[in-house]
Amino acid sequence: MSNTFPPAEGAWRNHYLLMRHGHSLANQEGRIISAQPLGLTGFGLSPRGRAQLDTLLADWRWARPQRILHSDFLRTTETAERVAAHFGLTRTLEPRLRERHFGELEGQSDTRYAEVWALDAQDPTLCQGGVEAVAEVAARMREVIDELERRHRGETILLVSHGDPLQILLTALEGRALSLHREREPLAPASITSLKASLKA
């Protein structure tokens, strides 16, 4: 999947690959794992997730990344480790790419995501039940790209994050209302969305 929707000044300086982590043990168990310490130290990749990454890396169809930043959760760290090892790269922890915090729903069934998304559609600034507001997620995710745009030019940069934060980021980059983030097709585990650079190095 490839998208353009560059920033306000009219062009991306870099080429971004936005990657959702591989299938995780949280996915396997159908649980919401969005906070410390469980997210940092547990619920890493499932056997299915490791197989997904093996397949992805064996048939890599995107530009070779030159830089990898990733959420500090275990499932994203393990995903980034595999990609970094494949390309012989180092990786950088970036906590702002972390999973959206789901507050009081932590550890509960992932069927309860739907309750949060229904509230998101009403008000993207809502923080009910300790859930991180969509607007806050969009701000921290966009901050990462804005910093990379200031510091680098002409690079292919892989950002490894989570489903909800990436969908929120993509909605923000498209200039659409954040309340519509769940109207995007859900990002599959181990999927990559490409944001093409519009300027040459």
Automatic annotation (TrEMBL):
Keywords: Hydrolase
One GO MF term attached to the UniProt entry: hydrolase activity
SUPFAM superfamilies, sorted: Phosphoglycerate mutase-like
InterPro entries named among the record's database cross-references: His_Pase_superF_clade-1 (IPR013078), His_PPase_superfam (IPR029033)
Enzyme class at the top of the EC tree: hydrolase
Keyword Hydrolase attached: yes
Listed EC numbers: 3.1.3.-
Domain of life: Bacteria
Gene3D superfamilies, A to Z: Phosphoglycerate mutase-like
Protein's name according to its UniProt entry: Histidine phosphatase family protein
CDD domains noted in UniProt: HP_PGM_like (cd07067)
Keyword field contains Hydrolase: yes
